[in-house]
Amino acid sequence: MDAITTPPAPVNEPNLTYAPGTPERAALELELKRQEDIQLELTATIGGTKKMGGGAETPVVQPHDHGHVLGVLKNATQADARAAIKASQEAAPEWAAMSFDDRAAVLLKAADLLAGPWRQRINAATMLGQSKTAFQAEIDSACELIDFWRYNVHYARGILAEQPIANSRGIWNRTDHRPLEGFVYAITPFNFTAIAGNLPTAPALMGNTVIWKPSPTQQLAAHLTMELLEEAGMPPGVINMLPGDGLAVSEVALKHPDLAGIHFTGSTPTFQHLWSTVGANIASYRSYPRIVGETGGKDFIVAHPSADPDVLRVAMLRGAFEFQGQKCSAASRAYVARSVWKKVRDRFIDEVESIHVGDVTDFSNFMGAVIDDRAFAKHKKAIARAKRSKTLDVVAGGKVDDSVGYFVRPTVVEGGDPTDQMFTTEYFGPILAVHVYDDANFEKVVDQMESIAPYALTGAVIAQDRRAIAWATDRLRFAAGNFYVNDKPTGAVVGQQPFGGGRASGTNDKAGAASNLLRWTSPRSVKETFDPPTDYRYPFMDLG
Ligand SMILES: NC(=O)c1ccc[n+]([C@@H]2O[C@H](COP(=O)([O-])OP(=O)(O)OC[C@H]3O[C@@H](n4cnc5c(N)ncnc54)[C@H](O)[C@@H]3O)[C@@H](O)[C@H]2O)c1
Ligand SMILES: N[C@@H](CCC=O)C(=O)O
């Protein structure tokens, strides 16, 4: 069992501004230029050895300039998956036996390297590979990932310190927070470098070994994150990274008797597929695999008649359109009282139309491109449908262009029918549906939107009337795992607003919190008796 020491107390990593003339801006611009001029071989890492996957080749491109290749990956094959699982099994005994302090030190060092010399490497890769602006990269690939690593150490230490509170006389009870028996399969999404870095490392911190399958479109930043972890001292075989679409990897991993857990973030359909595959194979595992998944959303803003129009306008602009609406938390439906809409509409639409969309290395742009051709086609189709519909009115944006990059203008669609798919389907792009309601119908509208979509990830109420805030907070209690009052529904900060949702949005284990880390331990209760009985008979027994 681990000794309990006190690691450095975590504090949230401050966001650098990248304002003109700042040293961080100069360093980032230099690094962007460097990475644009090279093409990396985006290898698999198996047992510490780097080699290209054995399957089909995929170029990793800049979404805002899709002719520009940043690197090339090859899909991991079933043989690669088997080798990675073997490497994870070989590394497991030593890693599980290592003290918590040693495991924690790897992540604390990784956090400090990312806060320092690695910051602009990973930020630039996230900007180029995922088309994030400098600020969106900074809050994700630098600050949130640093926070995940530092806060997870803090929460994990709290878990280890959690011990039985009662000991009968002559007895010492202890809890041994063991890792799971087997490997954890971490499958990560394209949209957050921080999530991609957190999903394999959280189980590793608790003593598990991991197979990490990043999203192909996030592979550049994932590749560098793996290198950073190695520089921080992560031993070979603890995290084994397999690039590509994951289909062959799942063929092996989901049938393997040692599958001990899945740590997933991505879409609801993918998660449901993984869960049902595990269900179908349930008799073949050594233990019941832990399944943790954070998935899609149809996140809302509800504006009461008392809402401050400026607060609402900024919440909609930033909440719906930052990172092209490709945050699981992004506002994609707003319900606005008619009296407030009258005050906010014209300026809101003017500002949406004035948003600069383009290459993220041009710092005047507020938005970049959507991630790939599939996402572009989905958004194009949704906008075309809105333009054809009699009950929908495209009041801003609505233009798409994929000739150079996958660009979708921020789009606002007014809809009179709140049951339309605009209000229920996750498009995961810069499309905001707005339903304007008569002021007197506030409660009726909230009742309707509470469960019209299957998701329950994030949501916000904008109001100044305290009774309205209190009522909506209670009425929407199960409609969002992260609920905001007078703010946008995006931008959760580790340690402040633990993130995750319920219903179709996931298992709500809250990334970057103790509740998530607990899923990667299998506690053993140990009772030690100092003066054990030596006679089997009890005092009540009348033996004559
Ligand atoms: N709730 C959250 O915290 C959260 C955070 C980020 C993203 N998301 C959600 O993620 C989605 C967008 O991300 P995405 O497009 O990367 O999602 P996705 O489901 O398409 O892909 C997620 C990951 O699963 C992999 N994958 C797909 N099928 C697989 C299989 N059979 N075996 C192994 N791996 C497989 C993908 O390659 C990728 O790595 C949105 O729905 C968004 O809401 C949720
Ligand atoms: N945690 C992020 C969203 C992660 C999903 O994409 C936020 O709060 O905006």
From TrEMBL:
GO terms for cellular component: cytoplasmic side of plasma membrane. Residues 1-20 are annotated as: Disordered. GO terms for molecular function: L-glutamate gamma-semialdehyde dehydrogenase activity; proline dehydrogenase activity. Pathway: Amino-acid degradation; L-proline degradation into L-glutamate; L-glutamate from L-proline: step 2/2. Pfam families: Aldedh (PF00171). One of its GO terms (biological process) is L-proline catabolic process to L-glutamate. It is an enzyme of class 1 (oxidoreductase). Keywords: NAD, Oxidoreductase, Proline metabolism. Residues 57-524 form the Aldehyde dehydrogenase domain. PROSITE patterns: ALDEHYDE_DEHYDR_CYS. SUPFAM superfamilies: ALDH-like. It catalyses: L-glutamate 5-semialdehyde + NAD(+) + H2O = L-glutamate + NADH + 2 H(+). Its EC number is 1.2.1.88. NCBIfam families: D1pyr5carbox1. Belongs to the aldehyde dehydrogenase family. This is L-glutamate gamma-semialdehyde dehydrogenase. It comes from Nocardioides iriomotensis.
